[in-house]
Amino acid sequence: MIELKKELKVAALENGTVIDHIPSDKLFKVVEILKLSELDKAITIGNNLTSKHTEKKGIIKIADYFFKEKDINRIAIVAPKAKINIIKNYEVIEKYIVELPDELCDIIKCNNPKCITNNEPMHSVFYIQDKESVRAKCKYCEQVITFEDIKLI
Amino acid sequence: MKSESLVSITDYSKEEILEVLESAKHFEENPNQKILEGKVVGTLFFEPSTRTRLSFETAVTRLGGRIIGFSDASTTSSTKGETLHDTIKMVSNYADLIIMRHYLDGAARYAAEVSDTPIINAGDGANQHPSQTLLDLYSIYKTQGTLEGLNITMVGDLKYGRTVHSLIMAMSHFNPTFHFVAPDELKIPDDYKKFCDSKGIKYFEHTEFSQDVINNADILYMTRVQRERFTDLMVYEKVKDVYVLKNSMLDDSKDNLRILHPLPRVNEIAYDVDANPKAYYFQQAKNGVYARQAIICKVLGIKI
Q1: Are B106 and A122 an interchain contact pair (Cβ–Cβ within 8 Å)?
Q2: Which of A136, B81, B140, B251 has the maximal Cβ count within 10 Å?
Q3: B31-128: in CATH 3.40.50.1370
Q4: What is the pLDDT of residues A64-91, one digit of tens each?
Q5: CATH: 2.30.30.20, 3.30.390.30, 1.20.910.10, 3.20.20.150. Which one for A103-152?
Q6: Backbone φ/ψ region at B301: left (φ over 0), alpha (ψ -120 to 50), beta
Q7: What whole-number distance in Å separates Cα of residue B283 and Cα of residue B274?
């Protein structure tokens, strides 16, 4: 079983990125945020795998592709504990846990119906005020929303 | 010449606030100056407003500028489905400055992003109304001779009242002591208390509009308790008359006390207060013209 898990995670990838420890119910949201459907690389997606850390987890392996850290950090809003492994020549050369950026564009939907972002064809921009408890402030209507109330676009 | 939009009072530093107040004083001494001769100002009022629009238009006219615009969005292309983006883009081709009020929160911040000319926010939904805050500050400054170390007592709807929230942010530069007087239903939100804590600002909360609170105050900032804010109308009936200021309550108040109100008032200040020299709300509205003349010049980068 352990052998199998190892193989699932990294062994098959010569070069590329592995995103591990994604909560199962957020896996496809991560796919969406990273716009993986537009990527023409070999992508392996596993979901509902058992893990030591969380009940069930999802994992995504993308061959021959490396994200900019600021781009991949956007997934922290749904997968705050996701771990990024950078693989080169079958070796993990770098790994890190995602960190919420200071600003999120087109990720969070403002839950104020009277906010201009919900009434005009425009970008949504949120400033992250507190990365621990996840409080985000709409750039436009200035309303602050807490983690439980965050809805994604 | 540097020109920058004014969307929120937090866009201005302490120094910039003081600069606006000094320039408002200058305009009060000499309100008619042809500083804006040859300039066109667009006043876009997507939501009706009497005081704010007339006060801005008076300010522009006294400075010799010309005004284009509308006071009711029902006569504009927005009824045909034109986006705010397109309306602003178009008007920014015509005017040197846009003064706008909109019913949606955040409309002014967005307009400032897409506009090629500076924007002055004259109110965006329930969000910001910085020219009101600057005229409140000017009124406090003028009547007290300083903004530093004052006892500011705010009464009424402290939960939804945007003028109250903006005034707290703006006064935070000047080491005030706040007294918040409100029913439980309309208490000051925790975010503002946390803000005061983070700045080391003293504040006290009261549910009772007591004689003690009044006698201690340098500024009484009254606001309207609105019926539509209550889910339980029984509660409204119970509290609506508790926060009414009557002339007899001012007998032992400080000599320098002044009573402010962003207007319109309904019944929270009895009419017998109007004749008291401490009543300042109508002069406060008049100060709005000078404060707005100062804001217009600052936004256009015109040095006074």
Answers
A1: no
A2: B140
A3: yes
A4: 999 998 899 999 998 988 999 999 999 9
A5: 2.30.30.20
A6: left
A7: 11
